[in-house]
């Protein structure tokens, strides 16, 4: 589920940064006069405001940790003072941007979990950087805080169960359609003279619909239950709909062809309904082509049409 969690974080990162920076600014003064003692008092207040924090620590202007980790987790607190963190990405970003920042997920060397770090710089009255407050938060915890419908929330778990149930039900329907399609022409045995063309067309439609539903089940189960990565970088962000519509178009095309043959032989005066059905299929093809064209244009423009 790590890929899905990273995808969700990418979608809510702006909101997460705004929320964390607001909490930090509410509990920590950007300019101090009381030295490290005042910073420690601010950290106590910050820890109460952010109980989800995995660890809170302070760096000086050179990137050296000046206090031990503050954490509710016994295995993470009470050490770290004196460590050089000047080579960390969050230190460089804070120094270059001079503001509160939020990092991408990265593996913590201490907890071995994916974490994100939010930093908050503190300056003296002359604008010199004194300290950087750093807050490490587990990726799953930040999703629970900012994105309640994430895969780790109660709703996210229920959503996976519901999608799994629907996938199982749809797969059962596909199996029934498959056996019905097979049985509709297997009854003729090997006697070719007894084969009914209409039954063959009906069997083809049933098998095509069965294939379409199986493809739909595969897409739903992989994306919503297993959390596999969607192929957004190739303009395939809606594979479920595209694949299903493509199979439906094929099935309707076969149905229209069957009607043309049937009415051409039995009653040519009823050919117009078949023509109307062919026109509807053509409209679906044109609509799907336009949708795919615009979807790929969005991707070509560096994701400007994607959801953030």
From TrEMBL:
<protein>
    <submittedName>
        <fullName>PDC sensor domain-containing protein</fullName>
    </submittedName>
</protein>
<keyword id="KW-1133">Transmembrane helix</keyword>
<dbReference type="Pfam" id="PF22673">
    <property type="entry name" value="MCP-like_PDC_1"/>
</dbReference>
<keyword id="KW-0812">Transmembrane</keyword>
<feature type="transmembrane region" description="Helical">
    <location>
        <begin position="271"/>
        <end position="292"/>
    </location>
</feature>
<feature type="transmembrane region" description="Helical">
    <location>
        <begin position="161"/>
        <end position="180"/>
    </location>
</feature>
<dbReference type="InterPro" id="IPR029151">
    <property type="entry name" value="Sensor-like_sf"/>
</dbReference>
<keyword id="KW-0472">Membrane</keyword>
<feature type="transmembrane region" description="Helical">
    <location>
        <begin position="242"/>
        <end position="265"/>
    </location>
</feature>
